[in-house]
């Protein structure tokens, strides 16, 4: 078996591939993936996959004490004509095909949900309007499961919008048939107290394209696992993320791209801004290139902009390469403070300080916002960024 | 007529846990329409003067005064100084990722002019100014200073000078790193602004080369944190022939 190569934090692949076996994608999990919550011990907080997360703020999602409330979290699906929207029972064969829960909360969600949503876009159906899934919390606790499946050569945009106050644990499966194109925008625009833990599994078919845009603004604690694997050659995955972490918020994004199939591509770009006391952002970017995945082309990047004192970022890119027969693999991670020289330059051109700050932060996010490709979401995002910045100036 | 008056200016910086005095009593008056060249060896404090006038937070004014038309410049924030009519063309312009040149220029012009320029005339104004500086129109869509060559950065600084029409322009080593062609284009831009007669120019340079294109009315030799000698254009010729040696020796004892 090829020895996994692990590249340490903050380095680039050019010239520095260190072999370090102590923290690989597989070994950093305290239990193998499973659909059964009983297969995972209750975390105590020192495990590799839990060490950044404040367990006491999970409202019992991690230790079995959070009981579903039945209502208090509403899910509404709006889909254009030609799309099938169903609510199905636990035994439906379409559930759980895109990936297996990798931690106790995802397994808890899978073990506890009562009904699952299944949205199907038939083969060769090209949608011109997005499918919109609104998840709105009214103080309830919910375990959810959602499947979005695209048949061969289907094309769709799905917008999943999370608002209100909830304690939510969920698994979301995206299944892309051959040549399908799916864009998913998941917006976490929760109220201040919400807790949201979810695993997103994408299974990308042969020559299919998957684009995920994860936007996290709200919540007390948000912990998401966007994960991708490939069902055939020629698949492409783009994973973009933006987060704006305010005082007291914990926002954690833990990605895995599993290059388990030859000749697939992935590109990961996450950017976050932080402001305020005890704002905490965590970004874990795991890319695994398995021995059989020859011809892989992958790049991952995380950038953070720290606007004030008291905020903390943990950014851990991790690239494991089991074959040298690849097109390219790289990663980059950088966390910087707001650049006073940029501020000086803009102010020296007459631009007032708060406007200069706004320009810089908008600029920081601009390239990612442009990737979304859903105009109303782009506008809302920009407005939201402005709103966050206004709050910081005030 | 706009006048910048610098009186007995003392400036310090913090470096290696120590406070170091860089400017040791600078006196200078720049009037609208005049061009002053400030020349001096490396480390003499020329750039410190430029950045102190613009209000860079790194520098601390310990004594002295700077006024623009009688208004206390040192009391103003960086952006207020710019809106009052001071402009600093920087030696090392800063990259601002994600902010396009066109957005930056318009935001800046809006701030300086007090109202947003009318879109139609503005687009034309920028286009023409860029053409005069031999800048490709595609330049406007690039991010501010990101990936610009040395020459592009300096052209971009002079483009701002032309558009923002300050009362006093401080050009900090605008000539450094430019080849002869770029130097000519940039100098022509500066001259167009000078010819309006509405700007006082403080041209800070290490070399006499730029003075072949931009003719100063006054030349000052800067050494050891103050003006060591002032004269007319002939002083530049003397520096060209003799270098700064006479001043650096004198400066050491000052």
TrEMBL record, chain A:
Residues 138-364 form the SUF system FeS cluster assembly SufBD core domain. Belongs to the iron-sulfur cluster assembly SufBD family. It holds the Pfam family SUFBD_core. This is Fe-S cluster assembly protein SufD. SUPFAM superfamilies: Stabilizer of iron transporter SufD (SSF101960). InterPro entries: Fe-S_cluster_assembly_SufBD (IPR055346), SUF_FeS_clus_asmbl_SufBD_core (IPR000825), SUF_FeS_clus_asmbl_SufBD_sf (IPR037284), SUF_FeS_clus_asmbl_SufD (IPR011542). It comes from Streptomyces lanatus. NCBIfam families: sufD.
Automatic annotation (TrEMBL), chain B:
Keywords: ATP-binding, Nucleotide-binding. PROSITE patterns: ABC_TRANSPORTER_2 (PS50893). CDD domains: ABC_FeS_Assembly. SUPFAM superfamilies: P-loop containing nucleoside triphosphate hydrolases. Signal peptide: none annotated. The keyword Nucleotide-binding applies. Residues 4-249 form the ABC transporter domain. It holds the Pfam family ABC_tran. InterPro entries: AAA+_ATPase (IPR003593), ABC_transporter-like_ATP-bd (IPR003439), FeS-cluster_ATPase_SufC (IPR010230), P-loop_NTPase (IPR027417). It comes from the Bacteria. PANTHER family: ABC TRANSPORTER I FAMILY MEMBER 6, CHLOROPLASTIC (PTHR43204). NCBIfam families: sufC (TIGR01978). Belongs to the ABC transporter superfamily. Ycf16 family. This is Fe-S cluster assembly ATPase SufC. The lineage of its organism: Bacteria, Bacillati, Actinomycetota, Actinomycetes, Kitasatosporales.
């Amino acid at each position: 078996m090829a020895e996994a190569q692990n590249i340490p934090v903050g380095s680039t692949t050019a010239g520095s591939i260190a072999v370090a076996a102590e923290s690989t994608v597989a070994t950093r999990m305290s239990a193998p993936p499973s659909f059964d919550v009983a297969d995972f011990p209750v975390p105590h907080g020192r495990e590799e996959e839990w060490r950044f997360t404040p367990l006491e703020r999970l409202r019992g999602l991690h230790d079995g004490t959070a009981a579903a409330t039945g209502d208090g979290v509403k899910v509404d699906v709006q889909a254009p004509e030609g799309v099938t929207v169903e609510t199905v029972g636990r035994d439906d064969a379409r559930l759980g095909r895109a990936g297996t829960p990798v931690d106790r909360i995802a397994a808890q969600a899978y073990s506890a949900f009562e009904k699952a949503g299944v949205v199907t876009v038939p083969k060769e159906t090209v949608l011109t309007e997005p499918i919109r899934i609104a998840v709105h919390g009214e103080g309830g606790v919910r375990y959810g499961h959602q499947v979005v499946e695209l048949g061969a050569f289907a094309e769709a945009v799905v917008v999943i919008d999370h608002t209100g106050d909830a304690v939510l644990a969920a698994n979301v499966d995206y299944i892309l048939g051959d040549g399908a194109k799916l864009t998913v925008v998941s917006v976490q625009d929760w109220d201040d107290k919400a807790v949201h833990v979810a695993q997103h599994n994408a299974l990308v078919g042969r020559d299919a394209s998957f684009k995920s845009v994860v936007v996290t603004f709200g919540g007390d604690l948000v912990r998401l696992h966007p994960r991708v694997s490939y069902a055939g050659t020629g698949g492409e995955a783009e994973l973009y993320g933006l987060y704006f972490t305010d005082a007291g918020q914990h926002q954690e994004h833990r990605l895995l791209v599993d290059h388990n199939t030859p000749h697939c591509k992935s590109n990961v770009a996450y950017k976050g801004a932080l402001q305020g006391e005890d704002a905490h952002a965590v970004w874990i970017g795991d890319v695994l290139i398995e021995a059989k995945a020859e011809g892989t082309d992958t790049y991952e990047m995380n950038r953070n902009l720290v606007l004030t004192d008291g905020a903390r970022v943990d950014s851990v890119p991790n690239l494991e390469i089991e074959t040298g027969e690849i097109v390219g693999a790289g990663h980059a991670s950088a966390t910087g403070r707001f650049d006073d020289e940029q501020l000086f330059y803009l102010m020296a051109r007459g631009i007032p300080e708060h406007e200069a700050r706004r320009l810089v932060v908008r600029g920081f996010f601009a390239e990612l916002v442009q990737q979304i490709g859903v105009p109303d979401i782009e506008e809302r995002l920009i407005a939201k960024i402005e709103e966050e910045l206004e709050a910081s100036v005030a | 007529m706009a006048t910048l008056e610098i009186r007995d200016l003392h400036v310090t910086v913090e470096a290696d846990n120590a406070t170091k005095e860089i400017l040791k009593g600078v006196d200078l008056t720049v009037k609208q329409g005049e061009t002053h060249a400030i020349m001096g060896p490396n480390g003499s404090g020329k750039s410190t003067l430029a950045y102190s006038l613009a209000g860079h937070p790194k520098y601390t004014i310990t004594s002295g005064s700077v006024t623009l038309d009688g208004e206390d410049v040192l009391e103003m924030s960086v952006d207020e100084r710019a809106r009052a009519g001071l402009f600093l063309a920087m030696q090392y312009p800063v990259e601002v990722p994600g902010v396009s040149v066109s957005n930056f220029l318009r935001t800046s012009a809006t701030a300086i002019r007090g109202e947003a320029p009318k879109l139609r005339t503005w687009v034309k104004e920028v286009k023409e100014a860029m053409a005069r500086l031999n800048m490709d129109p595609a330049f406007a869509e690039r991010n501010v200073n990101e990936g610009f060559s040395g020459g592009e950065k300096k052209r971009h600084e002079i483009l701002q000078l032309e558009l923002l029409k300050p009362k006093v322009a401080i050009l900090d080593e605008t000539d450094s790193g430019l080849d002869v062609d770029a130097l000519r284009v940039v100098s022509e831009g500066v001259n167009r602004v000078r010819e309006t007669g509405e700007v006082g120019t403080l041209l800070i340079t290490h070399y006499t080369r730029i003075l072949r294109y931009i003719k100063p009315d006054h030349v000052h030799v800067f050494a050891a944190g103050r003006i060591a000698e002032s004269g007319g254009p002939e002083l530049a010729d003397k520096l060209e022939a003799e270098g700064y040696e006479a001043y650096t020796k004198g400066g050491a004892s000052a």
